[in-house]
Amino acid sequence: MTPDLDSLATALYVKTDDVLKASPQLAPWRPAVGITPKLTDAELVTLAVMQAMLGFTSEAKWHRHARAHLRHLFPYLPQQPGYNKRLRKAVELLRRITRLLATDTSVWCDDVWIVDSTPVECGRSRETVKRSELAGWAKYGYCASHSRFLWGLRLHLVCTLRGLPVAFALTGTKADERETLLDLLDAEPELLVTRPGQTLIGDKNYFGRDFEHQLAGHGIRLLRPTRKGEPERPGAELFKPLRQVIESVNETFKGQLNLEQHHGRTPAGVVARVMQRILTLTTAIWHNDRSGQPVLRSLIAYDH
User: Fold this and answer.
1) What domain range is 160 assigned to?
2) Residue 147: which CATH number?
């Protein structure tokens, strides 16, 4: 199969539609009596993925493009306010579809994970910080890897060595990466039920005797670089090539899927747009895996 955007959109629509027919409770709640939406939930999910894949950060431009070029896939397209409202209400559906697609890949059962966090900027001017509805959640922080201060959030990501997202969370920039990781594992204990001896690779920020003891209680072996003053840790020769994987995944989110140009102004808006991009990457990996592509995380066939 030759991968292209139309084939990915069709496959995603069929998969989502089948899931919603089998489990209608996954769809966003709506009154039993009322007007049936002309754009189905499966079409909404597909439309959201195509928007992120094609790099449209302006929803006004996206709607103009969709109306001009995507009528063969979407006979009906809502107005921009309606699209925004439905996308925010569909966050849980996006998360469920992301997990279903991830578990339907050959790399879901990989026994090595990589963990890291990356900043998600939400504003630059002082007036934005004072007026934003994100105040209290978004924080001022410093990103050492990019040598910059910012006001916003951090996306904490656990992924496989092939770049498939496994678990993720959005926190303030000052949230402790270790506590966030433990919260992720506590929130989804089923992730590790069938994974005895899972290996997790992190950077120097994932340290501490108590922290490693809690990971061991989850059945996870932690590999990380040696901190200053520590004895040499095993597996040091593996870190440079493998750590580059998570940096590359973060660059995919930022460079190709425009993570930091999300334009979210409310907590619900930011969460929806971040979930939209995580679903998009997962969809590309799923479709590449099903179509036998050699590089699962490649978006080149779909982003034009």
Assistant:
1) 112-262
2) 3.30.420.10
